[in-house]
Amino acid sequence: LGRARECAQRTLHRHNRHIVGTMGGGPGGFGSEVSEEQGLQRVQLDARDTGPLPLVEWPTLALVVMVYGGWAWVVFGSAAWLASWTGLVMVIVLLSLTITLHSSLQHEIIHGHLFPRHRSVSHAAVYLPIGVCFPFERFRATHLAHHRDTFLTDPYDDPETAYMDPKAWEQTPAWLQSVLLANNTLFGRLVLGVPVGQLWFMYAELQGVLAGDTAKGWVWAEHGALVAALLATVHWVAPLPLWVYLLAVFTGNATLKIRTFLEHRAHEHSHGRTVVIEDCGLLSLLFLNNNFHAVHHAHPRVPWFRLPRLYFANRTAFLTRNHGYTYSSYADVFRLFMFARKEPIAHPLW
């Protein structure tokens, strides 16, 4: 009955969105996109981003080697560090950083980078789930679906949305509302974001498997086998205690929640839903410049190491296009939202 009700609500939602579209709204149901393209026309792309695909992106390859080399060194060669609390903290920090960077590299490769002419080779380079939580193939499928910009923040059609249908929110149990509201501050996202996001994602995936999506089930089975082999190797071969590795998995994935916390907002126009954080510090590096998120959504073919230059060379055009959705640094994000909610969970434009 619950699935039937959800399907009926989704059908009604799509019907209403079509009505809005016929009344002058855009394909996403939140407004017209015609005027926004004027800002995009003024962006000057590097010839390397419009010409033939390169054989290899060397900065990305160097980073892949550095991440796996650093991960292996910390996991298998840090026995001496574990003798002191200071060394233990350093191990956890370094391992967390490599896990965060590995996820950022997965995101980069999802968009065809590393070996642009040989995507299967690129996929193999980041397939090992050292961050444990998500199968690469499911990350890839859901993220590419997320990049249909007209559906950004849609409670049903954006797989990465942080919003709920207001009617579904009203029907959510009070205890779960409390958890989700706490998770809607940056502090809450750092503490609760990993388990909440994991359970939310796995529940949606399980629904698909139960509905007959056997391919999805096989992907998760393979992922489970790889994670089991990885953790068994850490436990039986590496000098690193398993609990230390799992703590680093948590902190590495929690760090990623800083990036995703306000990547998108509810806005009438789809291009106004994606942020730019004008930061070029450590977090920007860990996220491979994905804080220039509006630039990435507009030009996913541009590699991470050219995003800042593209943005600052066309700053006015990008900020016109995204309706000024910008912050000057991650320090501003922490100051404004550490204990404050950015937006309601129920989609405010639904």
User: Radius of gyration from the CA trace?
Assistant: 21 Å
Number of strands: 2
Ends distance = 23 Å
Unreliable spans: 1-39
- Give the structural class: mainly alpha
Rough outline: globular
Order of helices and strands: HHHHHHHHHHHEHHHHEH
> Order of strands side by side in the largest beta sheet?
1-2
**Strand count, sense and closure of the main sheet?**
2 strands, parallel
Integer average pLDDT = 89
Helix content: 55-70%
> How large is the count of helical segments?
16
Beta-strand percentage?
Answer: under 5%
Provide a descriptive summary of the structure in words.
- The protein has helices at residues 2-22, 37-40, 58-77, 85-110, 119-125, 136-146, 166-170, 174-182, 186-210, 214-236, 242-260, 282-286, 293-298, 307-313, 315-321, 330-337; strands spanning 276-277, 326-327.
- By secondary structure, the chain is mainly α.
- Strands 1-2 form a two-stranded parallel sheet.
- Helix 8 (174-182) packs across helix 9, helix 9 packs across helix 10 and helix 9 packs across helix 11.
- The longest helix is centred in the N-terminal third of the chain and has 26 residues, at 85-110.
- The radius of gyration is 21 Å and the shape is globular.
- The two termini are 23 Å apart.
